[in-house]
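Let us work through a complete example step by step.
Step 1: write down the sequence.
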Amino acid sequence: MPIATINPTTGETVKMFDPLSEADIDSAIERAHNRFQSYRHTSFTDRARWANATADLLEKEADQTAAMMTLEMGKTLASAKAEALKCANGFRYYAEHAATMLADEPADNVAVEASNAYSRYQPLGVVLAVMPWNFPLWQAVRFAAPALMAGNVGLLKHASNVPQSALYLADVIARGGFPDGCFQTLLIPSGDVERVLRDPRVAAATLTGSEPAGRAVAAVAGDEVKHTVLELGGSDPFIVMPSADLRAAVDTAVIARIQNAGQSCIAAKRFIVHADVYDAFVEMFVAQMQNLRVGDPTDPTTDVGPLATEQGRLDVEKLVADAAADGAVIRCGGKRLDRPGWFYAPTVITDITRDMPIFAEEVFGPVASVYRAADIDEAIRLANDTSFGLGSSAWTRDEAEQRRFVDEISAGQVFINGMTVSYPELPFGGIKRSGYGRELTAHGIREFCNIKGVWIA
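Step 2: predict the structure and record it as tokens.
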């Protein structure tokens, strides 16, 4: 894939970028390595000042930044602006809490026969971040804000279709006051990731993306014995039980499925509905999905913009077409729109069986798969019958059912009577083939720290 801004609303190439040369890559790694030697000793006070200044710029420039993200990957202007402001909040969160999160933790001096013993959190060094296009700024900030506040430095290899977003993030961090070399964008193809990760000056890596990409990075990091955090997508269940507020569940289900044109790792993708409310849910759900306005993401009345890439639309089309050919029922949508750009109609599909690829694969587009469950046991079995385990949502007013969902759903997050959302105050990450490690909260900032045990006689 070329490194280029290609407007998904029109399919037109806006701007091409030359990839860095081998000499440029080496220079960037050396700059990061050298910067770390001094940056690791900066105070939390200084880092927080720079983080807050970066947040100020993100807020001030939110409108322009939103327009850039919309141009590059097609999200609506409203959602793009919300993302820019969320990034500012992420920087402020770690500016406020990093010192406490990474404070020395005392041990039991008597038990370890010491005059003083404690755990100390120290930065690892240069961390490579391989990031996706669907949330061009927030995905990277989830790494950048805690990593920088911990005293690490970052190298960002962003998706090739959002180069302007990648360059902007490095620029705004520099203008926020972080010293030169603390955070650099590498405009490189995927084939150069291994070379960067194998460089001895690079200490660790984090990746958000596809399962094949995660496997490739994990294999190289394992060979080099370097720490990694992986978030590899999900096929998140959205369970509706008879006691649920059905109207609220349907309203939220629509948003949870079509947010970002369905291109979100934690978007609800599999709707598992109790038989007692299945027909009513499907009728209401289909009606709302049919009424969504698909169109130009710069138009404030648009609900769903284009998919970000032509290949992404082809992938969605194939999964839906194959399912329909095998007997699944398309209740609405199920086709591309006859217009320029990479638009696909909001789709609801039912009567899916286990032998259909759509049952097992993540559908990265505005396509909702709906399943009927006879009871809570079958709902939980269906929810867990996937190789993924990122987020989940369950709708019930029965407290016993709520406890079962919290305890028994195999996922990194469980939301009760609400849609899955990432917050700095909650750990974010998955299990099974959704990856490992955590972002956000204290867990996220500690991922790229050496937890050093200290014992003094």
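Step 3: interpret the result. The domain at 236-416 is CATH 3.40.309.10 (Aldehyde Dehydrogenase; Chain A, domain 2).
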